[in-house]
Amino acid sequence: MNSVFCILLAAVCSLCAAQRGQVYNNPNEIPIISYVNDNNFDGSYRYSYETGNGISASEEGFLKNPGQKDLEAQTARGTYTYTAPDGQVITVNWYADETGFHADGAHLPTPPPVPGVAPQQPFPRGK
């Protein structure tokens, strides 16, 4: 009985003497300037945010052709902006629907132009 009491007393003392967790305080913390998040019962939604270091994003979406089994599709479109390490401001506009994801931005690579059709050459005829 005496040993159980000593063990319990040691456990209580160790709990009381436990150090508090350290609070993390980052002096470089980036503030959230604005934040919106709206979700609707019909499946549509809208969100956006902007941070103190110039990052921003927005998106909205809705259910296309609701109730039509084979035609129903979630559709979304949005944009995001940030500053690249080289100082260039990057903006991407995008949309996604039943055809896939499509992005547009001045920094995105584009395929080389397709050469035009060669003009028709006369076919040599035998004499």
TrEMBL record:
GO terms for molecular function: structural constituent of chitin-based larval cuticle. Residues 117-127 have a biased composition (Low complexity). Residues 103-127 are annotated as: Disordered. Keywords: Cuticle, Signal. Residues 1-18 form the signal peptide. InterPro entries: Cuticle_Struct_Prot (IPR050468), Insect_cuticle (IPR000618). GO terms for cellular component: chitin-based extracellular matrix. This is Uncharacterized protein. The keyword Transmembrane does not apply. It comes from the Eukaryota.
